Amino acid sequence: MEQHIGIQDLPIELLLSIFRLSFDITSLRQDRHRLSLVCHSWRDIVQESAYLWTEISAHDGIQYLEKSLAQSKDLPIDIYYLSSADFELPTRLSEFVDKGESSQRASGVAEANPPQLPDISAFPKLRRLEIDGIPCKISPRGLELHNFLSLNLMDVVNVSAEQLLDVLRNSPYLEGLELGRSPVACPAHTSTTPIHLPHLTTLHLIFMPIPTSNFFLSTIHAPNCSELSISSIFPKLPDDVVRDFLFTSSTNHFAPILRTLLARGRHKDIDITNERAGQMEFHLQFHDQDCDDPTHAIIRFQFTLNSVRQIEETVNWLGDHFQRDVPKISVRLFTDGFEDVQLMDILDFHMTITHLGLWVPSDLEATIPNPILAHMSQHTASGWPLPNLEVFVYEAPEDSESQDEAMLDMLRRRYLSSPEGPDNEQIRPRPIERQLRRIP
């Protein structure tokens, strides 16, 4: 007789993992209460398992916070501040925290007047600190802690490079570092002794000033880095901005890392978006997930550049990090309101475009026909544009009849049989998977 296994028959370790995955940091109190109401057995599991109390939200108030600290026993904990109002918790909170590997996180809404975090130095065993989404200040003693395993500082308006360098020097086992949207100035003396972080695998520098990003890339030596993300807005500088201002001779120790990361990743994506005042958003992301999620990226660059030439030089710079015996990299190109035929040919010359995602504006907002569609429909003496194209995705709003006709004409010219005989068939590009999407 066939036996049916219910959820009550699962091993307790698996059940605890399922319960933990159902928690939301914005409603931890309600989530635990909801599970406790299912049955007596689940209520006992929730109340007796310290593992289910290691995530603590300051938003739930000091009494429930104290209860959570007691229930978590000796396990490492995460404390979340969800808004600046949570920072007003009594400073005596530190009296209840004496965990071997406690961590503290802050995330939430932006504030006009950045609040100051509670004195983090009151948590001497803090190992993981994440501040993301709340512009705030750290007290002068706030970063005097050592031996961090993970440090994420976003929108911290008063942190200095000297403070960060001191933390890095005293955190030899640091595994993850993310700095972003903070006005960190380079030290007056930039000839800083290199900081070796052999355990650092994740490095994110998000919209930091370009000299600051260059400084940290020059100072940090992380030979085992397996995830690199850099975002920068370049002013109107000479064309080779990445090589001359971000990755300079002082960052040569990152060259082997770049070469390794650029060779990895199942998906290699380039996104280009036209911006106002001649600026273009250039995103390059190598990842193993079929999604545009930077948390899964092996390597991610997001640059705001000012000319086609700057993008070409950036692509040239990327190509310099491949070994000579490696063929041109295959990439997926996604464009938004993009009409520059020259840049598309440049990218296909230095790389191999196998996927093209083309978003065209409405007929009232765009050149008709779209220059890229017109270019792709013309066979030249050197062959078809994008000869290795495998997947074509076309997206357009409803009021784009002229663009639609140009797209269909391009497909007919490139891929339909010609009555002129078999000799002409030999020059047809490879068949593609055609996708048409209509934006409501």
**SSE order, one letter for each helix or strand:** HHHEHEEEEHEEEHEEHHEEEHEHEHEHHE
Total number of helical segments? Answer: 13
How many β strands by DSSP?
A: 17
Spatial ordering of strands, largest sheet: 1-2-3-4-5-6-8-10-13-12-11-14-15-16-17
Which runs of at least 5 residues are low in confidence (pLDDT < 50)? 104-112
How big a fraction of the residues is strand? 15-25%
How large is the radius of gyration?
27 Å
Shape by Cα distribution: globular
Q: Roughly how much helix do the residues carry, as a percent range?
A: 25-40%
SSE class? alpha/beta
Mean pLDDT: 77
**Oligomeric assembly:** single chain
Q: Report the sheet with the most strands, covering strand number, pairing sense and barrel closure.
A: 15 strands, mixed
Distance between the termini: 53 Å
